[in-house]
Amino acid sequence: MKIIVTSIFVQDQDKALEFYTEILGFVKKHDVPSGEFRWITLVSPDDQDGTELLLEPNAHPAAKEYQKKLFADGIPVTMFGVADIRKEYERLMEKGVTFTMKPTKMGEVTIAVFDDTCGNLIQIMQS
Question: What is the pLDDT of residue 48?
Fold first, then answer.
């Protein structure tokens, strides 16, 4: 068994698609109609056959509440690995990304947390 798709709730699929592709650099894999929303998945440019990230609308009241509470409590919804966290931090800062935690050494890893502008905090990690 392996993870093939994981999802995050987003407030606006178009805004999320723009942020995750143009700012973070992910590649759109699927973008198909699904009722009033779309099935939008992204992949890493370095692993286009790897795990897909689904930009899932937070239309359900429970999803909105879940997303809102995690954000308010400062809890990242997911984590992405990076090769050089300081370089990635600088690159994202230059693109206007707001960080809630600068690169911080935590034992064997260094982490940072940023706002994805779509209702989520995202953690990046270098091991």
Answer: 96
Instruction: Name the nearest CA neighbour of 80 among 23, 33, 2.
Output: 23
Q: What is the DSSP string of 6-35?
A: EEEEES-HHHHHHIIIIIS--EEEEEEEET
Average pLDDT, the chain: 97
For the chain, the domains span 5-126
User: The tokens 């989520």 sit on which residue?
Assistant: 120
Q: How far apart (Å, rounded) are the C-alpha atoms in residues 38 and 50?
A: 20
CATH: 3.10.180.10, 3.40.50.720, 3.40.50.410, 3.40.50.300. Which one for 5-126? 3.10.180.10
Residue 117's CB is within 10 A of a number of other CB atoms, namely 18
**Amino acid 76: pLDDT:** 98
Mean pLDDT calculated for residue range 23-37:
97
